[in-house]
Amino acid sequence: MNEFYDSLLGQERASVQDVSLKYGRIIYRCHERLLRAKAVSTSPYYVGLSSDLGSFTHVTKRVVLVAETMLLSDHGIGAVHELGQRESMYQTDFDPDRLQAFSNSIQTQRYGMVTKDLAQLGQWLLDTEPLLRSGLLWYGPVFAEGSTGTSFHIGGQTTNMPLGPLPSFSDRSIDFVVEHGRAVDVSRTKPLASRVVRPILEMDLPFIDGLSLGDFAQVTSEEFDSYRQYRDFMRSRLLELDDALEAVDSQVALERVALAIRDELNAATAELSGAARSRALSRSGAVLGTTSAVLAAVRPEALQSALGFSATIAAGATGLWPTIQAFADTKPKRTRGKWHYVWVLQKKAAR
Predict the structure, then answer these.
(1) Helices (DSSP H) in 41-182: which residue ranges?
(2) Are strands 104-115 and 46-51 parallel, antiparallel or unpaired?
(3) Dihedrals phi, psi of 239, to nearest 5 degrees
(4) Lowest mean pLDDT across 103-107, 141-145, 281-285
(5) How far apart are alpha carbons 73 and 48 in whole angstroms?
(6) Tens digit of each residue's pLDDT (9 = 90 or more) over 166-194
(7) Which pTM does this prediction carry?
(8) Cα separation of 183 and 137, whole Å?
(9) Residue 101: how many CA atoms within 13 Å on its side-chain side?
(10) From residue 46, how far is each of 143, 192, 335 by CA, in Å?
């Protein structure tokens, strides 16, 4: 999807309707190739969902937590928005009435995409830019094609056929249809995906509910390694659930998973907050000897380098202190696990 986003000019981004139309024109050229790539993919978590456009945010923020790649489409209910036209020439068979062996024909085809709200779709495309660029997500338009008129050139004369309506659509790429926040498996070809997609849409996940779609996409892209660890964790926990999601105990099972996630998140938050307080203490002027001892034990080369510049202990001074502070700031990055991703999401949601 980099081609699409790289081609968007500033004035085009300012018009969300134009964003939708341009996306449709670009995807139209490679739509069949993308659908074939999905069909032959061996990933059990490459899923296609059809959802009401109004629930795109809800579906995106949840299914991305378990899917390898998600093709999201709306139901194809709404107006047909024309994207362009193309012409093709061919020869007709023998015409006995005019004793003409062959006649040249030029047919103009128009194509468009079906959606309720171009503006809403365009805003979603802008908000999810990091996800589409990274290959986690793409939007599959419902395309419609039809003849705008056919010109027949026979014996030097031209006759025009009347305009025809755009035909109804069909989409073979959808594995799940989402209605009222629940996914119905319509393909039965991805049992593992069904085990994780259906429950994730029904779970209570407060760390993303208060988060904008744009922030969710940005965090997921920026914390990609931690995100992938969390995605594996979510798959593992959801695959442990009983197959009978319609059973009476299904909500109890989902709540247990949600509670386990909240417990883990609370523990991670406490740990990360403690690390933040430790760094704040260092910045406020911790004893140089203690900090130096820690640094010498963990990264002696950093201490040696810092001492070559200065031995001052004043907070904010040059030399040793910035080195200690930089180490305190970067060390957690090496120890981040799956909960760091969720912690960042929750932190943004709480703003």
Answers:
(1) 56-63, 118-127, 129-133
(2) unpaired
(3) -70, -20
(4) 281-285
(5) 8
(6) 444 456 789 999 998 899 998 888 899 99
(7) 0.73
(8) 18
(9) 0
(10) 21, 10, 30
